[in-house]
Design brief:
Shape: globular
Helix content: over 70%
Distance between the termini: 43 Å
CATH class: Mainly Alpha
CATH topology: Growth Hormone, Chain: A
Number of domains: 1
Radius of gyration: 22 Å
Order of helices and strands: HHHHHHHHHHHHHHHHHHHHHH
Number of strands: 0
Length: about 450
């Protein structure tokens, strides 16, 4: 995680000396010591390039398949990680981050689609959430690495950035070993191979019923020559609104602001560098184990129940953190020990609820709501929306922290209220609905969205 690296003195001394000098004079203004646009660009540049790459990834995913798209993602990760760790100038670090961002764009486009398409419908939610689970495991490992390399001078930050090569290499090997999805093969006129793969992943010979559903979906998809234009039709409004909104709201919980900058955030609260990184490790552990709850609960309780419960828990946590900091953390003060521990606990409850709800479901729901003919194009809009708002928040959070101070937590709390209302009135339940039946079983039965599902192709 870059938040751990940007909190390392050696990294700041080499690339951001002004920020380092401001940090050691923290008594001047506790909230603004890390407010630097270039420092934020180090984190956010990855998501800006991922935003652009997601649309190219959509075309690659449709034309070449999910497997080659994941392979390309791993190559960009490898090159970007190597360049970042060997950087001598700031521009080298930024270019490395940009290349890794291209990998993120390709990976986030292909992996959720891959998981949704190979999973049996009754376990699709749990299988898809494995994507988010391994993201949380990666975050935890990154925090552990940052904690371990903090005492390695002056190149601990190089070790932290360079070790990203390991998961990139594993992704490369995995992309070679995995099979293509049956849906992607049949979509590209490789029906016999698609049937063999379907038999293999289901473990049975008789797959004719599912195969016919896939073939019918692919047949309808082939009638659409320009899927991005298809998204302009009013039948595409419901999944497009849901897909984009889920990604935007996922970021507006404030989760990435917390996860990216947890070490810096805790230093702002008065923790030392080691203590702040240790707190980030604790949060990472909570993140991983809470995602396991989602794997169990998403196909048992449904998507809406998890999202609404999490909205309540996240709202209470964010409001409580904001009130504690407003009352007890001034510009140049640190929190009392008891309050600091309470803030860490509240941060954990916030991360906990996000990890079993908006984190994994932000990817699951868009991957299962688009019909086949617009799946890759629609999902590209969802991914790009995620990357855009992640970029905006990563670029702006430290400045928001400086100007809004503790009220930044109340800002995110207000968004969580909006998210809850969105789930209540606009989000349909997709538990147990096969992808090829989503129009008939979901959109045509929703009190609002069914109005978009008539035969008139013009926009409403």
């Amino acid at each position: 995680m870059t938040g751990g690296v940007t909190g390392m003195d050696d990294f700041l001394i080499k690339f951001f000396p002004k920020v380092y000098r401001r940090k050691i004079r923290a008594h001047e203004n506790n909230y603004c010591k890390f407010d630097d646009q270039n420092l934020q660009l180090f984190t956010s540049s990855l998501y800006l390039s991922a935003l652009a790459a997601s649309f190219l990834a959509s075309k690659v995913c449709s034309a070449r398949g999910r497997k080659p798209t994941i392979l390309l993602a791993s190559v960009f990760f490898l090159v970007g990680s190597a360049l970042s760790s060997l950087a001598q100038k700031l521009w080298m670090v930024i270019i490395g981050r940009v290349l890794m961002g291209v990998g993120v764009g390709f990976g986030n486009e292909a992996v959720p689609l891959f998981l949704s398409e190979i999973a049996p419908v009754q376990h699709r939610g749990a299988v898809n959430i494995l994507f988010q689970l391994f993201v949380t495991i990666g975050i935890l490992i990154a925090n552990l690495v940052n904690f371990a390399t903090l005492s390695i001078h002056p190149n601990g930050w190089r070790v932290s950035l360079g070790l990203a090569i390991v998961p990139a290499a594993l992704l490369l090997v995995g992309s070679i070993v995995i099979t293509e999805t049956p849906m992607s093969l049949i979509e590209r006129n490789r029906e016999d191979e698609g049937k063999r793969v379907l038999q293999k992943i289901r473990g049975i010979e008789h797959v004719d019923d599912e195969l016919e559903h896939i073939k019918e979906g692919c047949k309808q998809a082939k009638l659409v020559r320009h899927p991005f234009k298809e998204l302009r039709k009013k039948q595409s409004v419901p999944p497009l609104v849901i897909g984009i909104s889920m990604q935007v709201f996922q970021q507006m919980t404030g989760i990435n602001a917390v996860m990216f900058y947890a070490p810096i955030l805790f230093q702002t609260m008065g923790f030392k560098s080691g203590g702040s990184l240790l707190s980030a490790v604790i949060i990472g552990l909570v993140n991983v184990f809470s995602t396991l709850v989602s794997i169990y609960g998403v196909d048992k309780f449904g998507r809406r129940a998890l999202l609404l419960q999490a909205c309540a828990q996240m709202f209470i946590s964010q409001m409580a953190i904001g009130i504690i900091l407003i009352l007890q953390l001034g510009d140049a003060n640190s929190l009392p020990k008891g309050s600091a521990v309470l803030v860490v606990m509240l941060t954990c409850t916030f991360v906990m609820s996000f990890a079993w709800s908006w984190g994994p479901l932000g990817w699951l729901i868009p991957s299962e709501t688009f019909p086949l003919e617009t799946r890759t194009a629609g999902f590209a809009f969802a991914v790009s929306s995620n990357m855009l708002f992640t970029f905006i928040l990563a670029q702006a959070f430290l400045s928001m922290l400086c100007h809004l101070r503790a009220y930044v937590f109340l800002f995110f709390s207000a968004w969580i209220v909006v998210m809850g209302l969105f789930v209540v009135f606009l989000l349909p339940e997709t538990k147990g609905v096969s992808i090829d039946m989503v129009v008939e079983s979901v959109w045509k039965k929703h009190p609002l969205w069914k109005k978009f599902m008539d035969d008139d192709d013009s926009m409403a």
